[in-house]
Known about the structure:
A: alpha+beta, two-stranded antiparallel sheet, B: alpha/beta
Amino acid sequence: MPNVTLRIFRGDRNGGNTADHEIPLTPGMVVLDALHYVQKHQAPDLAVRWNCKAGKCGSCSAEVNGRPRLTCKTRMDSLPHDKPITILPMKSFPVIKDLVTDVSWNYKVNKKIPGFKPRPGTEWKMLQEDIDRVQEFRKCIECFLCQNVCHVLREHDKHDEFGGPRFFVRVAALEMHPLDGVSRIGLLKNELGLGLCNITKCCTEVCPEEIHITDNAIIPLKERVVDEYYDPVLRLVRKIRGAS
Amino acid sequence: MNDKFETHEHDVLIIGAGGAGLRAATEALANGASVGIVCKSLLGKAHTVMAEGGIAAAMANVDPGDDWRTHFGDTMRGGKLLNNWRMAQIHAQEAPDRVRELEQWGALFDRTEDGRILQRAFGGHSFKRLCHVGDRTGLEMIRTLQDRGVQMGFDVYMECTITRLLTDGGRVVGAFGYWRENGRFVVFKAKSIVLATGGIGKAYQITSNSWEYTGDGMALAYEAGAELMDMEFVQFHPTGMVWPPGVQGLLVTEAVRGEGGTLRNRTGERFMERHDPKRMELSTRDVVARAIYTEVKEGRGTEHGGAYLDISHKPAEYVKRKLPSMYHQFLELADVDITKGPMEVGPTCHYMMGGVRVEAETAATTIPGLFAAGEVAAGLHGANRLGGNSLSDLLVFGRRAGVAAAEHAKKQGAASVDPAQIEAAEREALAPFERKTNENPYMVHADLQQAMQSLVGIFRVEQDLQSALGKIAELKDRANRLSVTGSRMFNPGWHLCADLKSLLTVSEAVTRCALARKESRGAHSRIDFSKYDPVWGKQNNVISWRNGEMSLQQRPTPELPQELQALVEAEKGAGA
Lengths: 244, 576
């Protein structure tokens, strides 16, 4: 099989450049395999985050030829070989070194979200059809690719007032849990800045778990915020009907 | 006091943030301790996240005949009676409550028709027993525990590697490590420490484990003077991917067989009929792994040296719903649509039954203040672990370790950390930067993996094990000459130097124990001693550090009480 050139960002907080590495292709090779080849044979200090190598842990996110991807699931044979393959760190987070970025902001956002709390007197029975939609959200592997492409974070840098798609998915999973007894609607509106999202669906497009972030999480949450804050009539009707 | 380094102080320090570490942390918090939890990766990325099939717990939601007694019996028979019976009993009795607890903390398991937690069949379990979420049960579990810990308020030290435990007069008082991000050193002072570092998969070439699983907890405990037990019992999961090369070893969940998947060799024969006609594909992992290995060795393997695992006789929609990540994994990484055709699979190093020797009730090691839970600890699984018993192990013994660590901390006064120990740890960590040799850590690691794979693998023989010991000694010499380039900023080559030290320690322990056990039992198969030996059936290999040498002794297994005897004899497991 032919050789191919990787053009990898090398640098840290103070800046850096790309460096070219030529590597031999093997059948079925993914970008993360290629990065490991570089580590082993050419640049032992190349910083790369990874764990499971199976698309289950969400550690190895990077931008491959300009597209945010899990490098463990990006096949080398899906990329053109006639020019170098560029591999850059996620743009929306500060670089630590090479392909490793500082994603600690995400963990801070998560801390703001009140956890699951069952309604008093809960009986622990749930039907599968009532949890299907929540299980979709629970598939999230926290690769933070959705956070990386969201223009509110990527272009407008609103990390202080916006939670980002990952945490809308998390809140949706809690809000739609059939037995949960906490409301996080105020939090969504005020602290997580849900209103800043203008549903461009960039997050949905990059999700490696194929979670319908915009349609199934963000839009229903926006509707709940509207109901709660801007539509007293509907709110009243719902109350009378006894729906949440 | 040494104030040269950043220092953090906690009642309880947990090393490792997978299922066991997180469960220990939340329990220690609930018992009033201040808790710090250290992990080599980001929070939520530990190997628990990859667990697929489910959590074994005799809840009897699907099969009303199940209860802890049958779970206990299955576990003991699966472990070929080498298990610590008391651990197996506690595990079987407490697992259902631990699962219910997860649900009460927000986990959403797949449901039965009447709305209870659904359970599926798995190898070696007499009843449908595995509580699951499709094939991503571990993700559900780790997210639930991590969020609970965050809500309760533990301090998380992510991307931090511990290289040494600090002791004072025979008890543990802290740990020394470095931040992966910037290479700076950090000291933790603690009254109790819980090891929850997982296994040793990276000692082998073909493994389902990620870079983290280098036996750190076992090596740390051993160096601090604790005992290691049953190190010869390394589980090879029967079904790892075999093609393409980059994904070799990647796990193919046992749930494929649990959901009705069949194994065939190149000639189309369902070869499990010859190896375990009664349980077929749902035999225990040791038996199925040896069966596939033997088929390949005898020339009946597939194109890439494996067996065919087929679930395509089930409706495509069912396969996609029950095994979604397997569907995607094969489609995207191997160009195989598992709803249409078979997968190629072969054994992969998956799990360590052996580890730090602990007390059943408290997860306490032989060192005061040091506890161990989950894969890093030995005893529950004996000579072979049943699928699904790992996640329940993490919950049951993680919780018990958390309670005991918090209790221990309450009784301890302040301890002092010894500056000399810290300085020695610092010197050791920095040595690879100062050497001007050309010994590359990646090459030493590759050579170790090759040696363990070929000489201490599924089938073992005296001569190979002897030459493995020679190899390991050579590799230790090379490890003492490792040199690295670049800075201390996130430098994986340097990080590997520390991991290699642990790997070499555990590899030696595995090999010594394998050499000593002159019989075949569970995951340990000797070509030169292919039968059970009744004497070895009643003793464990125990490793400890004596005067700079690795010393090996045999200890009698705890006597099984009369009233439990009947539960393990109900049905004999398949042969070794």
